[in-house]
Specification:
Blueprint lengths: L2 E7 L8 H11 L7 E7 L10 E6 L5 H12 L4 E5 L2 E6 L3 H11 L4 E5 L3 E7 L2 H8 L8 E7 L21 E8 L2 H10 L9 H14 L4 H11 L2 E9 L2 E6 L8 E4 L3 E5 L15 E3 L7 E4 L1
Antiparallel strand pairs: 1-8, 1-13, 2-7, 2-8, 3-5, 3-6, 4-5, 9-10, 10-11, 11-15, 12-13, 12-14
Helix pairs in contact: 2-3, 5-6, 6-7
Length: about 300
């Protein structure tokens, strides 16, 4: 079943409340998926200081100090490590690609949960309320957040099976539904050199979108190509550092609601995820149309 939430803040006065609002939205979707959950937070100045490269690690061997020492040795520069639940958030005064390469060299068995400037990706196994407390999500700041609660249907309940899938720089994707032809597309992507971390069908969609963005497409074009390529039933939310986009399949049987005010744009699998947002009583609210890409840019 799964639950999706997303919040794109337009009013900087709301940035200090991003984590608080995102926590409420995510926990409202707990009954749509209670086996695992995850969030992507853009712009928290403590978790991801401006101008620093950022990498989110999961299933990394060792404590924070040993991980930081090992990655710093591979990088040739100092690395700060923040523990947020089971996620180790690495930052350094280098670009994210260099930090990512060092993290892979130092901890080749770790799961890369996400990477890119201003982006922290946190996920884990367990119910959303417990996970959000372990991350301290309610205290996070920033301009954009995406969340997902999972009810596994076709792959293992593990951190690698949890959303968001953040497989490109500053990118992430969350998904409610299923892709019927994901195995075929996975084979095609693997033949082109793309590597995978899980057997989850959502990861196939995320890596498809990432390859299109890397080839120079914008988010709207990449999602239109996904709709033309993937079979199944789905609602997708895709974000990068400066954009936020939603699309549904041609039948649009998976629920989705969008709300918009002058201060924010929000999306949820159900309206109750949006009901606690400030000013929601004045929002324009609608259900997204099939295969129409709705996108907003900061």
């Amino acid at each position: 079943m799964c639950g999706i939430v997303g919040l794109h803040l337009r009013n900087p006065q709301l940035y200090p409340r991003l984590g608080e609002l995102l926590t409420g939205m995510l926990c409202e979707m707990s009954n749509r998926g209670s086996d695992s959950a995850g969030v992507a937070v853009y712009g928290d100045p403590v978790w991801t200081p401006p101008g620093r490269g950022c990498v989110s690690l999961h299933e990394a061997e060792g404590d924070a100090e040993s991980i930081g020492t090992a990655v710093a040795s591979a990088l040739g520069a100092s690395v700060d490590v923040t523990e947020l639940g089971d996620t180790r958030l690495l930052t350094a005064d280098v670009d994210s690609e260099a930090l990512l390469a060092a993290a892979k060299a130092a901890r080749p068995g770790a799961l890369i949960a996400g990477f890119g400037a201003d982006l922290a990706v946190l996920k884990g196994v367990g119910d959303p309320a417990t996970l959000t407390r372990s991350w301290g999500l309610a205290g996070a700041r920033g301009w954009q957040g995406v969340g997902h609660t999972r009810m596994a249907t076709e792959s293992a309940v593990t951190p690698s099976g949890a959303h968001p899938y953040a497989v490109g720089p500053e990118q992430c994707l969350v998904h409610n539904g299923s892709f019927a032809n994901h195995a075929t597309i996975r084979r095609e992507l693997r033949a082109a050199g793309v590597q995978f971390d899980s057997e989850n069908d959502t990861e196939v969609g995320a890596r498809f979108v990432a390859t299109r963005l890397a080839a120079g497409r914008d988010v709207e074009t990449a999602l239109k190509e996904l709709c033309a390529t993937f079979d199944g039933f789905y609602t997708l939310l895709v974000s990068n550092r400066d954009s936020f986009a939603v699309v549904r399949d041609a039948i649009a049987c998976k629920p989705a609601v969008i709300a918009e005010t002058a201060d924010w744009v929000a999306m949820g699998s159900e309206y109750r995820a949006l009901s606690g947002l400030p000013g929601v009583e004045r929002a324009a609210i609608w259900e997204p149309e099939p295969e129409v890409v709705y996108a907003w840019t900061r």
